[in-house]
Amino acid sequence: MNSILSVATVCLLILCPQLRLSADESPGESDPRPQERQLPFEMHAKMTQLPIVHVGPADADLVGTDNRVLQAAVDYIASLGGGTVEILPGEYLMRDSLHLRSNVTVRGTKGETILRKSDGVVSPLSVDGDFGEQQFTVADATGFQVGFGVAIWDQNAGGFHTSVARITGRSDNTFSIDKPLMADCMVHNKARAATVFPVVSGYDLRNVRVENLVIEGNKDANVELNGCRGGGIFLYRGFGTVIQNCEVRNYNGDGISFQQSNDVTIVGCRSESNTQLGFHPGSGSQRPVVQNCIARHNGTDGLFLCWRVKHGFFENNLLEANGRFGISIGHKDTDNLLQSNRVLRNGEDGVNFRNETLGMAAHRNRLRDNVIEDNGTNGSAAGIRIRGETDGLVFENNVIRDTRPSEKQSQKVGVLIENQVGTLTLLDNQIEAENPVEDKREK
């Protein structure tokens, strides 16, 4: 009987640890002190000092001026479990991406740490590249070298089917790569390889920060890399990454693109004069935050919400003088808040909701306190155009206007509502246009 009671007592103490407190203790007072509490995924407490290494042209822990020394620093810090790489002022020639690693912060000196994309080369393939193969053969191997970044594709292998990898070996005109081809790349479909890649990239990441870098894309000396696989800064499954005070300019493709990457934060960044999109969250990236950023003079859209971008927060950004739309929202992009942005002088509509059927449309997005002004520099446009079977939108307290002389005004319509659009709310907006609201829905 006593042994049964003893077992019961032990069980109570295990299941109800508060019973072990003395009469004058309250819950929590016997918890481990902060310095004794282990991290969630480590068997040690949080440390007050983490590894740091300085990289630069001189007077640094690691000395050099290209991607190899930067990568050596990032990989070294990653091997210690995480810390910080400080890149000193200077220009660094990038023949491959700087590949980010989990738990590593990469920090430059704002405006002075420049990562410059090298001149690229491109060649047709001379042998078909097959899905899953880890080699390719080019007609002209000039400019392809071991250690360089490379992209391989054909006219049917765009988007995510483009392969981006590193060259790991060579035999004549055949090169091995560190990743398998994502698609068949057929000679008869004009398959090509080019030494193009994101200048900074990260795959399958946690707890990464990128700060104070200038990315010089060198677009005149490189062919385009599509935004599903590239950008001046590119993330794929880069969960929780923070990009702060970075500038991406002159990249032949998107400025900053992140795909399948939840909880990404972009603050105080500039994306300018890139040939495609300024900021490109996409492919199911949920809860993105883009604040206090500038997208200017990009070839297409300033801010492009791609597929399944949900519960995002976009605030106090300037989307100006981009070639197509200031903001584009479409396929399953729902429940986002866009507030206090300035959408100015873009080529077509200021804000464009893309043409999607009911199950795929951009429902329940809210735009408030934005200024949408002087858009349509390529011709007649709307401040906001809503297409498809989009439903549940709210537009509140926005200023939508054209301030140019009347003979030069091209933002002719304030809000253009196409015929398939569902319910929407217009509340306390200030609209100055030849046609403030054009509603094509059946009454």
TrEMBL record:
Residues 221-353 form the Right handed beta helix domain. SMART domains: PbH1. Transmembrane segments: none annotated. InterPro entries: Beta_helix, PbH1, Pectin_lyas_fold, Pectin_lyase_fold/virulence. It comes from Aureliella helgolandensis. The keyword Signal applies. Residues 1-22 form the signal peptide. Keywords: Lyase, Signal. The keyword ATP-binding does not apply. GO terms for molecular function: lyase activity. This is Pectate lyase superfamily protein. Coiled coil: none annotated. It holds the Pfam family Beta_helix.
